[in-house]
Amino acid sequence: MIITKEQFKKDFEKKMLKLYAQEVEDSTVHMQYFTLGYLMKEYISEGWAKTTNRYTKYGEKQVYYFSIEFLLGRLLASNLLNLGIRNTVSDALKDMGLSLKEIEDVEVDPGLGNGGLGRLAACFMDSMASSGIPGNGNGIRYKYGLFQQKIVDGYQVELPENWLRDDNVWEIRKSDKAVKVKFYGDAWMKPREDGSLEPIHTDYQEVLAVPYDTALVGYENKTVNTLRLWNAEVPNYTDDIQGELNFNKVLLNKREIESISEVLYPDDSHHEGRVLRLKQEYFFVSAGLQSIVAQHKDAGHPLSELHNYVAVHINDTHPAVAIPELMRILMDEEGMEWAEAWHITQNTMSYTNHTIMSEALEKWQIDLFKELLPRIYLIIGEIDRRFREILSSKFGEDQNQIEKMAIISGGYVRMAHLCIHGTHSVNGVAKLHTELLKSQELRDFYMLYPYKFNNKTNGITHRRWLMLANPELSDLLDETIGNSWRRNPQDLKLFKKYKRDPEIQKKVEQIKRNNKEKLAAYIKEKNGIIVDPNSIFDVHVKRLHAYKRQLLNALHILHQYHEILENPNFEMLPKTYIFAAKAAPGYYFAKEIIKFINALAEQINNDPRVEDRIKIVFLENYSVTLAEQIIPASEVSEQISTTTKEASGTSNMKFMMNGAVTLATLDGANVEILEEVGHPNIVIFGMTEKEVLNYYRNGGYNSREIYESDARVKRVLDSLTNGFIKGIQVEGQDIFKNLIDYNDEFFVLKDFDSYVAAQKKMEDLYRDRFTWNKMSIENISSSGVFSSDVTVMQYASGVWDTRIIER
Ligand code: CJB
Q1: Is 155 helix (H, G, I), strand (E, B) or coil?
Q2: What does the alpha-carbon distance between residue 497 and residue 503 come to, in Å, rounded to a whole number?
Q3: d(CA 501, CA 503)
């Protein structure tokens, strides 16, 4: 949009007066935030209405991205950026004596996601709008987002995240679009006179699903898409009395009903088998599909054509009940026959798998499922029966094979199997991950449906992760290669020609230095630790999970500490190791690792013998907003998961785009990062995929042998249990047990030696400023393919079959 400074000032003053009956000069920064937020919403609304109308009028095929998490991050800055008015607004506010930065800092970060999966959904929303793809999000409006993490005495403590305490300026409640979702009751098929069967569902509990819509503003284009999040409420029974209602019963139900959208489950890559979680899943799926079908009918399109107007994307298996739910709507409510409904359903739905780890694969106990969703269970039963027929025709009498692949088997409903059978497309999130799905985890399904499998490597929005997070680097890019990269991120490769240019190298280094100073100030303020901006900033930020191996990093630091104590003249470049990570509240071992890192920090940071060669910082409450501060200041990006375990990773891409050099195993999208930057510009270590798979399949790994044969490992592990590290006790013993007695499931010790060497290599590279700056520039300029704009275009053409409306 185009607006002058003068016009904006007038609008802002008027809005302030209207909202608060106050002049700007007497306002608080809190008032300024809400004034600006509501004004933005007004600016956005015209384009929003126009986009919605355009989609309906031209019958555009629309994508609905169903996800149980959307980890959006703050919206004010990104909306200003995408509207193209951030500079104008900033200047105008400055004229009025106000600071845009301070105002932006008032916004709460809505943490409606755990980590990679939820953040990916948010990046896709931004990229779809910015690429002119008619795309909508569909999810849950959790009252409490992911818990706030405090570190108390080195331990993680969880506090509720009440992000809606103040107004959420971005959402619009659409009460008139509310729908009802049915749980519990009895469901059966009643024979009709003509011999056909009528589905009956009685005695159910009704929950009102009320949508809250948020605008998703495209970057300097005319597209404003919609994120619809559903709130669970008690229906207004006076409108619709069904038989006799006991008011007390209604009140008793209130808490139970409202709990559906109360809180986000804090588990990452781990299946939570509680009934409330299944309720959440069916709740937002049923509400979303009901509203989609209603909209489709309102627009006058035939239901038989639904798949030509609508694509529903199932983000991991959490929304898998979308498959039977669409069948239910088409058959029970619209009177369609099974065969046609199935054809439409399969052609409407597509599915992304985000992990191969078995503990994350969703399966529901039959009894629990049947009780909560009796009608849906009947439909899944029929899907399973028909699927078994297909399997029988292929595998004949091989019952084992049929049970292995069935949807309902062994007392469980297996959601991934339902997703593969019930959709037309199944994708992994990086090349290696997709290959592992095809050759290992989902091999049988790949043999059955080879045409459904495809890869879509993840991406990140370069608008949030470069333009907003690193304005200085963005300006330098504009000065050198022009600003086309902002619209076409692959143009970042134009920057490659400056990799040897001493002046540009110096500027890149200076920008990094400035970002490091800002982060150092933040660290001082939050943790009271003084870190040297001249030291190497080596960063490991992501969820705390054994497979992500924060432990390997920490053990290496402990090793360096021993080296210094043993040899006071030990030569190393000063290093600042930065961690940030939340552990799932019930994940005991992950919490012990947090305590271990903090104890190590306390001891090393305060040991005068270290002479500040090592500093360790654990920043609490990792979030999108914190990531925006940490990543641009990072130099070494730790991506050290056990090979085969990290499906893709996405922070790896954000670091690279900001000029950090990756220290990586050949896992997930690290493989593709290597392909892009080439061996000289990344440091690779650790076991190969084949070695890992071989050990998992055939055994033969003995971590104790390493402990006994490698003196460095012995020294490090012994110091976990012999009182050397003052702040830990049981934690050290548990870590020792995990690594030695339980044989180190994630090969921490197996990779220790090559990790130490890789760290050393990184340090040597850093010493040579020319080489390092060249590597940094290579990384920045190779990162464009990892923009999620590229990814969503691949989904649009390869999976969803949607048109790009305008850019
Ligand atoms: N992932 O964040 C989650 N949660 C899960 O339950 C399963 C997977 C992550 O998804 C990201 C987006 O695809 C991946 O980059 C990451 O490797 C994976 O762990």
Answers
A1: strand
A2: 12
A3: 6
* Class of domain 59-74+109-424 as given by CATH: alpha beta
**Cβ of residue 458 lying under 6 Å from some atom of ligand 1:** yes
For residue 769, what are its two tokens? Answer: 């400023």
Strand partners, 183: 205
Q: Which atom of ligand 1 is nearest to the CA of 270?
A: 6
Structure tokens that stand for 79 in this block: 């909306």
Ligand 1 contact, 37 CB (< 6 A)? no
Distance 539 CA to ligand 1 centre (A): 19
Separation of 289 CA from ligand 1 center, angstroms? 25
Tokens of 27: 């306002």
Spatial distance between the Cα atoms of 658 and 654, rounded to a whole number of angstroms: 6
3-state secondary structure 203-265: CCEEEEEEEEEEEEECCCCCCEEEEEEEEEECCCHHHCCCCCCCHHHHHHHHHHHHHHHCECC
Identity at 787, one-letter amino acid code: S
**468-511 pLDDT tens trace:** 999 999 999 999 999 999 999 999 999 999 999 999 999 999 99
| Confidence (pTM) | 0.98
- Residues 29 and 17: their CA atoms lie apart, in Å, by 15
Correct CATH for 462-791 of 3.40.50.300, 3.40.50.2000, 3.20.20.150, 3.40.720.10: 3.40.50.2000
Q: Which two tokens stand for residue 727?
A: 């702040």
Q: Give, in order, the Cα–Cα distances in Å from 744 to each of 96, 250, 560, 734, 735.
A: 60, 52, 21, 12, 10
| Residue of minimum CA distance from atom 12 in ligand 1 | 117
Q: Which atom of ligand 1 is nearest to the CA of 118?
A: 2
Write down the domain spans for the chain: 59-74+109-424, 462-791
Kindly tell me the sign of the dihedral angle through the C-alpha atoms of 286, 289, 295, 298.
negative
The catalytic site residues sit at 354, 542-543, 548, 650, 654
Q: What are the tens digits of pLDDT across the range 325-352?
A: 999 999 999 999 999 999 999 999 999 9
CA distance 332 to 78: 43
Atom of ligand 1 nearest to the CA of 458: 13
ipTM of the complex: 0.99
